[in-house]
Amino acid sequence: MKKFEKALIVQDDQIKRISKTLSDVQAVGSELKEGNAALKTKLDEADEQMNQLFASLGINLKDLDTEGFNVSGSIQLSSDEMAKIKLPTFEPLPIVNGANWDEYEKNIDSYMDKYELDLNIDPIKQLLSAQQIREIENKFYQEFGDTRWTKWDYTIVGLAALVGFLVDLLVVKMPAGAADKYVPQSQKSAAGKWVNKMMDSYLNPENNAAIRKLESWAKTPYDAVNVKAFDRIISEEGPIKMNANLHRLKTPGHDPVLQLIFGVLDCMNGTISVFDQSGKLAVLDNPNFGGTNLFLSITKTLAHFITDIGTPKGVVPPFFSLTQAITLDTPFEINDMGTIRNMKLNELAERMYSVGGYNFNHFLVMSLTPLSVEMIIRGYHWMTKPTTNVDFKRDYKLNSMLTLAHSLTMSTNIIKMWLNGWNPLSFNYAELLMLIKSFYSFVRAKSERDKKIENILLQNWEEMYRAHF
Fold first, then answer.
1. Of 30, 43, 216, 350, which residue is 20 to 30 A from 68 by alpha carbon distance?
2. Does a structural domain hold residue 244?
3. What's the pLDDT score for residue 64?
4. For 219-261, how does the pLDDT look when each residue is reduced to its tens digit (9 = 90+)?
5. Do 303 and 349 belong to one domain?
6. 179 near 355, Cβ under 8 Å?
7. Most confident by average pLDDT, 51-60, 319-328, 458-467
8. Residue after which a domain boundary falls, among 358, 384, 400
9. For residue 445, pLDDT beyond 80
10. Which pLDDT band, with edges at 50, 70 and 90, does 153 fall under?
């Protein structure tokens, strides 16, 4: 509990105790007032009876001369009667002071120990009534959005994760273009076979004259396979492993996203950027190409990507080229010239792409899993979204539901890998990217919401300060 919260709780307790003491004093005063009124009534009655008694004897009290007689102004009680009288006692008023904040804080702690104040209860619940809390909560949710989860929210998230798992297990399966040695025919995705067929029919240069013509125009410097004679501009010590099966994985210029950086730069400079076997990025000078302008570099990079999609090897999934920069050991073993050792991640990615069919086509099939999760969560959120319009770029609750749903779905992908004998080709890379994206959006949404709340609180504090000083 924060220091200022402790101070507020102590001050609230002081007010309550002082109010109780004042109430007790008021109650005693009321009782005394009522008692005095009753006693006065009885005395008046007795005085009237005395007047009537003297009048019956023919004596008028008002005419009596009382000079010389001692008249007592009060009724004296005996010592026994005085001992029976119990005066009301009141709790002393609790006072907390201090010459400075440190001393005041110390006295606050002593006060809390003395009166056994509970630090485990939410300070807001101790300071405000239930009705006040409800009113504040309603106003808060109207202004910043209701982020509370209902049982239906949890149910939909669980349902989305279950659907995602079934899509991953029964539809996505494993790459259709994988060698039978690594993936049996029964485990190859039917959807993947259809995607490969469509790509081959419409985007393969061998089957489409327009694509073939585009291919001949969209020659790029980073598409070279034999680079042994190329001079290194950025030299690295590791050997470069390049061949017709791997050159699109090794060169980030072929990556669907990274091409906009490395592909364009290579076209502008007539170079080829390639990852060597040590995980370092080498930049080689391609003597067969000269530099081009920015517009032509972007155009040729994108055109070259289109002509590569429909080829038998296809292109790598987005950001998959970055695996060539990671040389950490994996649990998967390889026979390296008679020696059994663990494959490094870049080596595992080489085999997944070159012989496993783990390419952009399969990435599209894998995307069905996160797509099903997104459709369920976003559809549910659209139908149940409150009418209050909260001005945020990102919906905090929606992003929290998506993050949890994708986390659960990614967890079920581990079950799928286990069911397939831990075959790395059953790993859903698209779901991983969506999980990273949803987590990033969730963090940004939370940060944006927290920042707006802090700004509103700061404005209110400033208004209160200006109003009193």
1. 43
2. yes
3. 64
4. 999 999 988 888 888 766 778 888 889 999 999 999 999 999 9
5. yes
6. yes
7. 319-328
8. 358
9. yes
10. very high
How does DSSP assign 112-166, residue by residue? HHHTT--SSS-HHHHHS-HHHHHHHHHHHHHHH---PPPHHHHHHHHHHHHHHHH
Structure tokens at 370: 């996160």
What six digits make up the tokens of 371? 């797509």
Give CA–CA dist 336/329, Å, rounded.
14
CA distance 330 to 380: 39
Judge if 382 and 448 occupy the same domain. Answer: yes
Judge if 414 and 380 occupy the same domain: yes
333 assigned to some structural domain: yes
User: In this structure, is residue 275 part of a structural domain?
Assistant: yes
233 with 274: CB under 8 angstroms?
Answer: no
Share of the chain above pLDDT 90, in %: 51
Q: What phi and psi, each to the nearest 5 degrees, are found at residue 90? A: -125, 145
Total domains in the fold of the chain:
3
User: Computed over its alpha carbons, how large is the radius of gyration of the chain?
Assistant: 43
Range of the domain at 373: 144-153+367-468
CA dist., res. 150 & res. 152, Å (int): 5
299: exposed, middle or buried (Cβ count in 10 Å: 0-12, 13-18, 19+): middle
> What angle (nearest 5°) sits at the alpha carbon of residue 387, between those of residues 381 and 388?
110
Residue 100 tokens read as 């400075």
> Which position has the token pair 């080596």?
347
The pLDDT-based confidence of 30 (bands split at 50, 70, 90) is: confident
Structural domain includes residue 180: no
99 and 233 fall within a common domain: no
Indicate whether 252 and 330 sit together in one domain: yes
Question: Are residues 307 and 225 both part of a single domain?
Answer: yes
The order of strands in the sheet holding 271-275 is 231-234, 281-285, 271-275
How far, in Å, CA of 185 to CA of 188, rounded?
5
d(C-alpha 223, C-alpha 226), whole Å: 10
- What six digits make up the tokens of 86? 């119990």
For residues 132 and 252, give the distance between their C-alpha atoms in angstroms, rounded to a whole number. 59
Residues whose CB falls within 8 Å of the CB of residue 9, separated by 6 or more in sequence, listed in order? 112, 117, 123, 126, 127
Cα–Cα distance between 301 and 311 in angstroms, integer? 16
- pTM across the whole model: 0.74
Contact 431, 370 (CB under 8 A): yes
**Together in a domain, 237 and 374:** no
Same-domain status, 221 and 297: yes
Domain boundary among 308, 330, 358: 358
Strands 281-285 and 271-275: antiparallel
